[in-house]
Design goal:
This protein is mostly helical. The chain is 77% helix and 0% strand.
């Protein structure tokens, strides 16, 4: 959830012409991360939860790619990219730990 807040704040300064491009795509990715984790945790099986954690991980990778693109085209600074990547990496570590825990199901 903290990552989503950071993303919304950061993308609010994106150029207006990116409102329906990168801004929208980045925000959707960020929102999908905790949404998939929440949906998976509400499922009745650990296997389903693991699947939603994997989907969440895919959204993190997609977000990282879009953040990198934003930096490369001059919208974001390197400090912003590093901050977001650090948060993404922490979320991925937690998700991978849970995936590993439920891997036998």
């Amino acid at each position: 959830m903290d990552l989503v807040e950071v993303i919304y704040t950061l993308t609010s300064s994106f150029p207006v012409e990116e409102k329906f491009g990168l801004t929208s795509q980045i925000r959707r990715c960020a929102v999908s991360i905790p949404s998939n984790i929440a949906e998976g945790s509400g499922r009745k099986s650990k296997k389903a939860f693991r699947s939603f954690l994997e989907i969440s991980n895919g959204s993190i990778n997609e977000l990282k790619t879009q953040i990198e693109i934003s930096k490369r085209i001059g919208i974001l600074k390197d400090d912003d990219l590093q901050n977001i990547f650090k948060q993404c990496d922490e979320i991925q570590k937690m998700a991978f730990s849970l995936i590993k825990k439920y891997n036998d199901f």
